[in-house]
Amino acid sequence: MTTDLITRLEKIVGPRFVSGAAEERYLYSMDQGTMPPSEPDVVVMPANTEEVQQVVRLANELKVPIVPMGAGLVLSGLTRALRGGIILDMKRMNHIIEVNPQSRYAVIEGGAAQGMLKSYLKKHHPQLKHSMPDAPPIATLAGNICIHGSGHLSVLGGSHSDMLTGMEVVLPSGEIVRTGSCSVAGEWFGRSPLPDLSGLFLGWSGTTGIVTKLGIKLFPSYKHNDVLVFVAEDADQMPDMISKLTSTQVAEDMTPWMTPKPDWAKGFLHINIAYGAHTKKELTFKRNLLQASVKKYIDDKVAGFLPLPAPQKGRFLQIPSPDLVRFADLRKGGGFEYVGAIMAIEHFPQAYRAGLEIAEKYNVSYSLGARIIGAGHSMMFFFAYAFNRADAEDVKRASDALEATNTAALAMGGIPWKAEQPAQQQIIDQMDPETFALMGRIRSVLDPNGIMNPGNWEK
Amino acid sequence: MEHEDILHRCFRCGYCKLPGNYVDINCPAYLSFRFETYSPGGRMWLLRAWLDEKIPASKRFAEIMFSCATCGNCVEHCAFPEFRDRLLLAFTAGKEALLDAGQAPPAVRDYLTKVQLHGNPYGKSVKKSSQWMDGLEAEPFSDQEYLFFADDVGTYDPRGQEVARSVATLLKQAGISFGVITEALNSDGNDVKAIGETPLFEELAAKNIKILNQFNVKKIITLSPHSFNALKNDYPALGAQYQVFHYTQVLAFAMGNINFSSDNEDVTVAYHDPCYLGRHNTDYESARMMLRSVPGITLVEMDRNRKNALCCGGGGGNFFTDILSGGDGSSARVRVREAVEAGAQILAAACPMCAVMLEDAVKAENLDSKIQVQEVSEIVNQRL
Amino acid sequence: MNSIKFDPDVCVNCETIDCLMKCQYVSFKDVAEARDEKLKINDGKDSRVLEECLTCYACQEYCPVDNNPFFLLVERQEEKGFLPAPRPIIEEQLRMMAPKGRIAKETVSGPVVDMCAFPMLTGCVRGKLFEGASTIVGTDIFCNIMWLHFAKNSTIRERVPEMIDNIMSFYLADADTNELVCFHDECYGTYTSVADAYGINVPFKPIHQFDYYNQRLDVLKDKITPINAKIVYQRPCSNRLCPQTDPVLDEIFEKIGAERVPRKYDRANALCCGGVPRAHQRDELADELVDKNINDMLSVGATYCVFNCPFCMATLGQEVAEQGLMPILVSDLVQIALGD
User: Which of A16, A414, B204, C301 is the most exposed place for a label (fewest CB within 10 A)?
Assistant: First the structure.
């Protein structure tokens, strides 16, 4: 069976880009997080949509599972082959197809990396940028959008899935479909006014299709950029502070962070506020608006802006910041995973305290924080735990802490983002049964053979 | 295995796959094969798995390990400052462990056998080691300021010999006092060391040091950045005490001695940074200084330059073992396309291996009508 | 706890109240009003000056009889619980700059250069100017004078003796010198002016960087290649504690061929760089100070903007460079003249 599969896959994409070798099966069986490994039978790397389509048709014929994978950086094990089969590594499809500077969108292939688009725009369209997540630059745009990621323009533009303007998708049954304006007109300017079929592929963890192209919104890139770091001491005041800061509508990104390291930061609550402007005067004006919005707290001396000279701001303005992945080396063990719970802003104090309690209970190295989405419409509150992957007990501790965090997040009204398979079960248990039933009906229509990333979003 | 303490600390975040400006994939092996296993992070995790007996030593595993071109892009761009300097050392240690386990790919075995038997990977007799000097009128080394060290590529490879002659000619033009040794110098051993065969490297180096000391050599000009790296950074630990320069470093400050023809055509040149001169030894300017001093040359930069340069794919022994070859994703082919995209008519190389790799890539890409690969001294010599 | 060295009768009988009348940031309609406010401060009563003060140290220099008006003002701010900056801002900085115990005994030999808490500047100690020098650096020897900006005399009293003890026991006790060259003149101010006013014993001899450079330039006079350039100088608040060093700087500039072009905001009329007001959450005032300084610098046509204080340079350096002036520390300018 596997030999036949490999032979036929080789005919589709060429022998160089198919492997059923032990090395690939091992490495693709896991990601950087705590989920246990689960091996694929084969890894395949298609070069274009037609090859994806042929692979999907073959998988249907042979009833073999397919797991689409971008950079494999999800950390929550969503690209593991839970029931074996094919991992479809999309990274050969990394072309930037089109940039429309007037209507500010880009069309890219399903394996295009965040860093490459950033670099491309900087060179060819310096007046434009896209919203980069804090993931490393090799992370794919499609992967991040499909999991409802967020990033450095999320206060301005919401979740990255909100910035999606259309998709080309190979359905589990092999048809190629388009969603959004590109399904009618030539341009990829948006998802309205049509029935929004893009939702069939967002947040489904690769169980409903394989995204081969997508359109995303671009935003003005400013000549002048700045970051303010607001520091507070009382978590209960954070929701109002966030509300006031976002009410100015000038920030591009707002990321609260609460870490025990460095020592000086422990116990304080920080909010990084990034904003930009075409002129220095405009930048100052925006800064003044932000500062004025929280003047009450400054006057009360309970919060304020860290005085950072220009040279010290560089690291805060680096996008993406390698500082974030360095958290993985905190225990000199190359590992971290986090629960990112999407929740209402008012749960900030509760989430913060829960994070501290869980970290203490499970004795894990932690970093807490959030990314504000929209004008304070919601946030992705993250509870990150570092672990030493060479120490099984340490991995278990982090895993237990993550599970407890998922439980706590759900209890306070949050929803774990890009949830691990066990967390999906927790969400399903709390989900309106009719909603889950509808999900099942949709999947059975789209994927009659049940080949798409099976094991996810199932009871 | 040495450095195994860092293997599990790699997060596989992938910064190592890219240049600092994220333009495109910049790890030659990953660019060529595209599986995660061929990325630096993949190698780290696989080595750990092999040591933990989770995967067997296989032909593919050996291919993955020996496909590393030791270009140093991963070291330059790894996000973890506490251990990034040890990445290549860990890979070399892994290769050494595979060699010890008898798991070297055949091409690697052949390469090492030839070096072991003949002192060079071409399997050529040392009697032919002065062939490259034919028609050059190079002086035997006696009391000149510098020794010119042509290494194995410059000594035995036909294209390398052309490059060696060209460099020596320009050194003479610039009034540099140098001589050559026609005795049986061995390969510098740089790539032997990178491939993990440290004892052989030490043997080669010891023989070379003995000869160089017999001649009372104090200052050396190397043709190859690989030789430059070995002689400058590795030989001192074996007792060598020389001042070592790459030829561009000497010529960059001697260009004022050179008279150029007044009727040179204008030409656009892109310079390809060799890894062992650039990332490994942080000299990004000498060759550029040379090129800037040539009338009629407009220097353009490829998107990936200096510490972000894309390797030609010839390092780490791959020039001889060819494990990286094949496909339009080979880094040499990607590199020449990048040079064309940058508007260059000439792609300048400062390393004989790069020159050969890139010339082959131009042919494979059918770009002969658009771009020509030339070694830096050749570009200068043509304009005298 | 030692109280600030200060004589209230001096102020009662002072005719000019220069400490407040010359203040560039707090205004008074006449000497009488200034005297009222000064006496309120002296008596520990509420005064608007406690809140409006920019903490630029200038009144220390303006007082003609060295009656420590600024140190006393900070004392009163703290006594009355006045916070110049929000609590978390002060608290985080207190932690950042706290001694970490990351200090080890080290053999040093003269000249021993105290780099304060600026490890990134140790590269400045090089060449002929600092031939044979040892450097010491870190938060375990931090001069702690910055707490004058944050109403934290208590921290100065608590930490400065510990720092002095560290300097002695880890470095100078076994060294061949009892002199400490202060690269940052805030350190010099701490070990001279502050120590004197607060009654803190200093067992070593602090040497101001300018005195050191000036003396070295005499030794190295044959090596000097005059810079032949006009410069503007950003005099920092810390120099108010050692105004006698400003003429030494003039001598240095003369020796290296740098012309200190007169400008409005120099010498006794120096204007704050704007760094501290930002910590006080007074960014609009800070913007105004930056603009005034830079416009003033530009109006006189210089090549270099020379900084004494690394923090001033961090605050103003980028703006200065964007306007076409080259920001540079005094030591680096001297080294240019020495060819290093």
Answer: C301
* B38-93 tens-digit pLDDT: 999 999 999 999 999 999 999 999 999 999 999 999 999 999 999 999 999 999 99
Write out chain A residues lying below 8 Å of B58, CB-based: 21-23
H helix or E strand, kind and range, residue B58: none
258-287 of A, contacting C, C-beta below 8 A: 262-265, 268, 284, 287
A38 part of a folded domain: yes
Chain A residue with minimal CA distance to C320?
Answer: A310
pLDDT digits (tens, 9 = 90+) for B270-292: 999 999 999 999 999 999 999 99
Query: Which residue in the block uniquely carries the two structure tokens 């989920």?
Result: A35
Domain-terminating residue out of A48, A66, A89: A89
The Cα of C290 is separated from the nearest Cα of chain A by a number of Å equal to 13
Query: pLDDT > 90: what percent of chain A?
Result: 97
Quick one: which of B310, B382, B383, B314 has its CA closest to B162?
B382
- Report residue A309's pLDDT band, with 50, 70 and 90 as the boundaries: confident
Same domain, yes or no, for A172 and A273?
A: no
What distance in Å separates residue A295's CA from the closest CA in chain C? 9
C-alpha span between B312 and A392 (Å, rounded):
41
Q: What's the order of all strands across the beta sheet hosting C229-234?
A: C258-260, C229-234, C304-307, C326-329
Taking CA A138 as the corner, what is the angle to CA A134 and CA A144, rounded to the nearest 5 degrees? 55
Contact yes or no for C86 and A312 at CB 8 A: no
Q: Does A292 lie in the same domain as A240?
A: yes
Q: Is the minimum CB–CB distance between A390 and chain B shorter than 8 Å? A: yes
- pLDDT tens-digit profile of C149-174? 999 999 999 999 999 999 999 999 99
Global pTM value = 0.94
ipTM: 0.96
CA A140, A144, A145, A149 dihedral sign is: negative
Comparing A111 with B129, which gets the higher pLDDT?
A111
As annotated, the residues of chain B forming the CATH 3.40.50 domain(s) are: 120-251, 259-381
Range of the domain at A160: 96-220
| A1 pLDDT more than 70 | no
The architecture (CATH level 2) of B259-381 comes to: 3-Layer(aba) Sandwich (3.40)
> Do A116 and A142 belong together in one domain?
yes
> A196 and A100 share a domain?
yes
- Mean pLDDT for the stretch of residues A18-38: 97
A290 and A242 fall within a common domain: yes
Give the CA-trace dihedral at A352, A358, A361, A362, to 10 degrees: -130
Q: Do A288 and C284 touch (CB under 8 A)?
A: yes
Residues A116 and A191 in one domain: yes
The H or E element that residue C291 is part of is helix C283-299
Four-CA torsion B330, B336, B340, B345, nearest 10 degrees:
-170
Q: B-chain residues within 8 Å CB-CB of A72?
A: 36
B55·A136 Cβ contact <8 A = no
Domains along chain C with CATH numbers: 8-79 (no CATH), 88-213 (3.40.50), 224-337 (3.40.50.1860)
* CATH number of the domain that residue A46 is part of: 3.30.43.10
Split at pLDDT 50, 70, 90, the class of C295 is: very high
Q: What is the mean pLDDT of residues C191-203?
A: 96
Beta-bridge partner residues of A272: A229, A255
Q: Which fold has domain B120-251?
A: Rossmann fold (3.40.50)
Which residues, listed in sequence order, are joined to residue A276 by a DSSP beta bridge?
A: A225
Cis bond before residue A40 (omega within 30° of 0): no
Residue B168 one-letter amino acid: A
The closest alpha carbon to B13, from A419, A328, A229, belongs to: A328
How far is A413 from B258, CA to CA, in rounded Å? 77
